[in-house]
Write a structure and sequence with these properties.
Blueprint lengths: L1 H7 L10 H4 L5 E3 L13 E10 L6 E4 H4 L3 E4 L7 H7 L7 E6 L1 H4 L2 H12 L13 H7 L6 H8 L4 E11 L13 H20 L3 H19 L7 H23 L3 H14 L4 H13 L3 H14 L4 H26 L4
Antiparallel strand pairs: 1-5, 2-3, 2-4, 2-6, 5-6
Helix pairs in contact: 6-8, 9-10, 10-11, 11-12, 11-13, 12-13, 13-14, 13-15, 14-15
GO molecular function, one term: peptidyl-prolyl cis-trans isomerase activity
Protein name: Aryl-hydrocarbon-interacting protein-like 1
Pfam family, one: PPIase_AIP
Length: about 350
């Protein structure tokens, strides 16, 4: 909470320089001393931010210090909220500055905020699938999933941005994160991440492998959103993403995250009901959580799609039979004498 107070104690009286003179943009005001625009093309800047409404309570919308993770932006790489690049270019390292921005600059903020919140929650910033349908989907279509952001999308408002510049790095000083790459670079890095994930899987480093696979999937999904659904380019990307997702699920099986495996494989099956490997992995996950009927059904579907899997399926069914016998014995002992 002390760090929050540092932000909140920033006074408009601290301003000794006209921000309008430094940054000739309409709809901007500075409430702190700004260093002046600097050449920072393709530098990565690391900073904390707090976003507030311009109401009497100065309602906080987002605060990276509360989340505990600073933000990173590559200047000149077409970040959605480009006004932040302008603001950060006006600041010195370790400086805390407050800026008022009119709606001409804040209209896309709800979309950016949604992505940042999903990342902070450990989710993919790009929605892979919508799990609602019918009437529910009609209402979900225009929602960002956060009530305050939906309100801002419906009625854009001026916002205060309180920024603290922590670090500035030259391109040679950092490894660019995948979110900072353009589409061509993303497609080039996918096979590299795929290979790294496979290597980590073979070494038994399953959690690290999941990070590589997930990073590659996010790269593909970001590119895929710009293609028309079910067209050839979209389908090629979808096939690559599904392969990576199934590798990701294999790691989750080793990590005993069975319900997450069921969720991801079900997503693939719903979209692509001919994906044999998805049924196989889902069958194994169902087996581990005692869903006997579902496991048998999935393994049966595996054989329908690929009869050459007969030996592997026979082995899995033998394990399933053994596990169900063990469970039935345990249940009998547990409930013996109760009835």
């Amino acid at each position: 909470m002390e760090e929050l107070e540092t932000f909140q104690n920033l006074s408009l009286e601290q301003s000794h320089t006209s921000f309008t003179a430094l940054l000739p943009e309409e709809g901007l005001r500075s409430g702190a001393n700004a260093a002046g625009c600097q050449q920072r093309i393709m530098e990565t800047v690391t900073f904390h931010f707090r976003t507030q409404l311009c109401d009497d309570e100065r309602t906080v919308i987002d605060d990276s210090k509360v989340v505990g993770t600073p933000m990173e932006v590559v200047i000149g790489n077409m970040f959605k909220l480009d006004i932040w690049e302008t603001l950060l270019s006006s600041m010195r390292i370790s400086e805390v500055a407050e800026f008022w921005c009119d709606t001409v600059h804040t209209g896309v903020y709800p979309l950016v905020s949604k992505s940042m919140r999903r990342i902070a929650e450990g989710k993919d910033p790009v929605d892979w699938h919508i799990h609602t349908c019918g009437m529910a989907n009609m209402f979900a279509y225009h929602s960002l999933g956060y009530d305050d952001l939906d309100e801002l999308m419906k009625e854009p408002k001026p916002l205060y941005f309180v920024l603290e510049l922590l670090r500035v790095q030259q391109p040679s000083e950092y490894n660019r994160e995948t979110w900072a790459l353009n589409d061509e670079e993303r497609l080039k890095v996918v096979p590299v991440l795929h290979g790294q994930g496979n290597k980590l899987f073979k070494e038994g480093e399953y959690e690290k492998a999941t990070q590589k696979y997930k990073e590659a999937i996010i790269c593909l999904k970001n590119v895929q959103t710009k293609e028309k659904a079910w067209d050839v380019p979209w389908l090629k990307l979808e096939k690559m993403a599904n392969t990576l997702t199934l590798n990701y699920c294999q790691c989750l099986l080793r990590m005993e995250e069975y319900y997450e495996v069921i969720e991801h494989t079900s997503d693939i099956i719903n979209q692509h009901p001919g994906m044999m490997k998805a049924y196989y992995l889902r069958g194994k996950a169902h087996m581990e959580v005692w869903n006997e009927a579902e496991a048998r059904q999935d393994f049966s579907r595996v054989l329908d799609l690929n009869p050459t899997m007969k030996k592997a399926v026979k082995k899995e069914l033998a394990v399933l039979n053994m596990r169900m016998e063990e469970k039935n014995l345990e249940d009998k002992k547990k409930y013996k004498g109760m009835f």
